[in-house]
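Q: what does this look like with 6-O-phosphono-beta-D-fructofuranose bound?
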Amino acid sequence: MRRIAVVTSGGDAPGMNTALNAIYQMGRDLRVEVVGVQGGYEGLAEGDFVSLDPHELRENMNRGGTILGSSRFEAFLDEEIQLRAVKNLVEADLEGLIVIGGNGSQRGSLAIHGHGFPVVGVASTVDNDLFGSDICIGVDTALNTIIDSLDRISTTADSHHRAFLVEVMGRQYGYLALMSGIASGAEVIVTPEFELEPAEVARELSLAHEQGKRYALAVVTDGAKNSVEKIAAYITEHPDEFDFELRVTILGHVQRGGSPTVFDRYLATRLGSASVQALMDGKQGVLVAWKNYDVVYVPLREVTSSRKELNMFLWRLAMMLSK
Ligand code: F6P
């Protein structure tokens, strides 16, 4: 291969720029020209290719976000749009594609692979829900941001003797809630895998009050059925069951921002550089992922058709530790 493209797709993640820089540098080393796609799959469908500037990459490699831009582009599910994207790649004299992104993006990678175009994915999503990868680009940074926020919330909660419901990202995978809940000593963790009814959450938080704790925290995944809104509504409707004053914080997109941590920079460098090597070695239709502290290549078909399980032992441990 002499010329390949790279696209950042779906929700951005801190470390995407580090990966872009590693891909470009690895390409240079292997004498492959690396071209960028602007604006995620939407840009790919429009043939929005751009040449990469090594100085811009170097200057931004440790900044959050993605200098290529990204998009949520549901239309890419349409086969006609996928074929248009492949046509654009071929007409631009491109011979391979690297897709940096999460679950939805890797479904797109599989589709492109199915149309006969060489593609590899790079595991990147703060949700950490990609099957086959222990951890993905952006997760460590998001977790550190969440922990910093929970530490800050704890001090004001302590001063005012309040309970807080804190919503974190993750969609249908409760990894961020579980890990941040453990690391912050939260009293309750609610995830799509381990749903607790609002009454149970209220009881757990009240138990903390009875035990003489000065404040209590519940961490809730944004994709949980029993959302922070539902739990808060229950507590407001049942004031007799609840002794703390309640506050709700939705951490939101602050979790996807900021400079990547040391680990995310390392991970993005390893996965990014390995993705170029993979294409050169003729590996196609695989996700470049991280398992047991090393790079692995997982078939995209397996990645997109399997569900990552949240560790029930860790959830039980967290609930036990907070008692
Ligand atoms: O998939 C990453 C993620 O940050 C989820 O955790 C969150 O639910 C969602 O994206 C938010 O999407 P958007 O940035 O499109 O609002």
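The chain is about 45% helix and 20% strand. The chain has a mean pLDDT of 97.
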